Amino acid sequence: MKFSNLLIKWYLQNKRDLPWRSTTNPYPIWLSEIMLQQTRVAQGTPYFLAFTTAFPTVFDLAAASEEEVLKLWQGLGYYSRARNLHKTAQYVASELSGVFPPTYNELLKLKGVGEYTAAAIASFSYNEVVPVVDGNVFRVLSRYFDVETDIALASAKKEFAALAFELMPKDNPATFNQAIMEFGALQCVPKSPNCSICVFNDSCAALQKNKVDQLPVKSKKVKVRNRYFNYLVVEDENENTVIQKRTSKGIWQNLYEFPVIETDKVEDYEYVYGQVQQNFFKDNDVVSFIGYNEESIIHKLSHQHLYIKFWKVSLKGTVENGINNEVLKTFPFPIVIHNFIEKE
Q: Which of 33, 128, 235, 257 is catalytic?
């Protein structure tokens, strides 16, 4: 079909040289696909290279501690991906003798592997005829064929997968899948694509109908929750500090942080200091209490906006379980806390 032939021809001329494209080994392909969920290629590539250097095989990743994995993942966000990655590596290494399942349906059973990731691994590693459907695919197909289906609907993925399957050359599914995603990433971009140089500019329905900026249709808006964190950065007489592990489900599970006071709104010095005196460091007198940042640092996550303030708490005597700055830097932190530590 004309669409597939043109698309693959464009891909072979324009594709980026990415490290996970030079192999059919499912381990690095799986790693790259998990890392690139919710992450741009430019941001994810250094992490991919760091992981494959530290953990060249699935056995190496399985043998690592969760803290080692989280520390290397630090800054990529969506930390449940890293925890699932680690658990899946352990499962593949111990239960499957290091061999990834060879089919789409079996890959779907792995923790953290959804329809898109399973399709990518199945087609890239095993050449299974199964289409990938991600944001790029939604965008390219909805524009080219003028499909007005709301991609926020659960049924949309099935509709677009059926269309992609119809277009896919059955003898070359891997290249087609790579090509359509790359085309969406480089050419048919979300905002202001340069349609004048597009290989489909004489056949794209959205371009003919002047609807490029209206497609794909996506209705659902994510409700964002605001949260207010006041981090207490302790320093005792030995210049030691204290940290704690976030063990509850939710953001940053199993990462570390300073003791925190979460409030309903941005609070001032008097309020936070009052909370410190009432509820923290009963065994040590507070020598001084100073705010590091007058304005909150706003850290945006997909469903939450965090308003963060750091407060320096100097204490008399020594704190229990205190650690020095060198040890502090070995722990995995959310990137906003990591950046604060590095700056101080």
A: 33
